Amino acid sequence: MTRSRRRKLQRLQTRQPTRAGAPARPRLALRSAPLLSVLLTAMPSAYAADDTSGTGSLAEIVVTAQKREERLQDVPMSLQVVGPEAIEAYQVNSFDDYTKLLPSVSFQSYGPGQSQLFFRGIASGGEGGYGVRGGSLPASGMYIDEIPVTTIGNLVDFHAYDIARVEALSGPQGTLYGSSSLAGTMRIITNQPDPTQFSAGYDIQGNKFTQGAAGGILEGFVNIPITDNIAVRLVGFYEHDGGFIDNVPSTRTYTLGQNDPALYLTVNNAPYVKKDFNPVTTFGGRAAMKFDLNDRWTITPSVIYQHQEADGNFLWDPAEGYLKTNDYGPEFNIDAWYQAALTVKGKIGNWDVVYAGGYFNRDVSNEADYSYYSVAYDHTPGYTSLPNGHGGYLDPTQLYSGRDHMTKLTDEFRLSSPQDFFIRGLGGLFYQRQADRSQANFYIPGLASIPDTPAVPDLGDDMYAERDINTDRDYAVFGELSVDLVKNLTFTVGDREFWYDNNGFGFNGYAGSAAKATCVPASFDPPIPCADTDTKSVGNGNTHKFNLSWKIDPDRMVYGTVSTGFRPGGPNNRVGIAAYKPDTLTNYEIGWKTAWFDRSLLFNGAVFVEDWHGVQFGLPVVGTAGVISIYNAGSALSKGVESDLTWRIDRHLTFSTSGSYIHAYLTTNFCGFNASGNQDCSAGIAAPSGTDLPIQPHIKFNSTLRDDFNVGPYESFVQAAVFHQSSTRSWLTDVDAEALGNNPAFTTADFSAGFKTLNKISYEAFIQNAFGAEGELSRNTVCVPSICGFRPRIYGAKPRLIGIKISQRF
Question: pTM to 2 decimals?
Answer without folding.
Answer: 0.87
